[in-house]
Amino acid sequence: MRNSYKTTRRSRRVVWILLLALLxxxxxxxxxxWWFSRQTISEIVPDGTIAIIRLAPDRNTWPIIEKxxxxxxxxxxxxxxxxxxxxxAQGEVAIYxxxxxxxxxxxxxxxNTLPRDELDAQGIVVREIGxxxxxxxNQIMPFSTTQLxxxxxxxxxxxxxxxxxxxxxxxxxxxxxxxxxxxxGNNLEISLPKSDLTxxxxxxxxxxxxxxxxxxxxxxxxxxxNLPVYPLIEEFDQNLASFTxxxxxxxxxxxxxNDEDGVGFLISSYQDxxxxxxxxxxxxxxxxxxxxxxxxxxLSDNSTAQEISVDxxxxxxxxxxxxxxxxxxxxxxxxxxxxxxYDRGRLVISNREALVRFWLTxxxxxxxxxxxxGTSGFMNVDSWVGLSANNLHTRNWxxxxxxxxxxxxxxxxxxxxxxxxxxxx
Length: 425
Description:
By secondary structure, the protein is α+β, with helices and mostly antiparallel strands.
């Protein structure tokens, strides 16, 4: 009996010692993680920085970061990629994005370990702006200090879970927006604070629809904000540009398609039906702006000048029924119409009857699932870039599209605790 009691006490002691050792190991691992991943190079940033992508690579995450960011240039106009940093970055890496789209890099490292000849050959400017804090850019630029504090994250546990925490994205709005970046070597996931996202009303979408953006993602990043979501959308079509500016904060979603006639769009906006003629006025004005009248007249010095005028009253509106719902349309040019109407408390405007019909019925001749798990929005990057090369009037989308080198689609969805932006191959 006494021997059995001693054996039990000894077994309990062994168990407690093992538990204590395990606890100390976990604490030591967490402490080392938080120390080595501390934020040291995001406190001094180039002037005009609006976002920072901060990576804290270790031996477990370097291979994943390389796979996820392999072909993305880190400095505007240069070929430097994340793989080039492996030999001399000694921990933290920060990618700075400025309000003009310019990108540069900060690393924790030493001047002695830099491949100076290779960097010189690319025309990369190197500057030491603090102890073991190096800045690499395409030009000399001024710096400013931020008040960023490091957020708390759970450390990656070796040999567990294919998806790893790779770093953070910091959007320098007021207030600061902070998101965690996860990756598995193929896809990236950015976890942002949860928003009250509008879920798309369809499980499947037409084959030629390459993008849908819904609120509040649109309204949070409006034309007055740092990130150019609206300019990206607007530059496909001047009518679309006009409507996004008119509706602005009331937009529910924007849908984009690509067919043999170019880019199609549909905008839905939360609007009261106090003025049942409003949608007709809008499409008449848009059609008039699309085809202004040009008149020549002679000035007092006998020189000739031109007067440009628009007359919405001269535009005729045709009434029709689509899927049992009354709609209006105006002729914009010899082959294209603008459609408008009210449906379920929304004012809807489109330049494609097929998109209007899909909006009303959810039916189309060719349907597919939204790419990249996007339940509140998505974008087919390949289609967007192909159209951008042919249609964009300016190139103010550099901030959003370094990802075009590595990913084919983007999805947005809400989960229980956060809002996720998914980058997929």
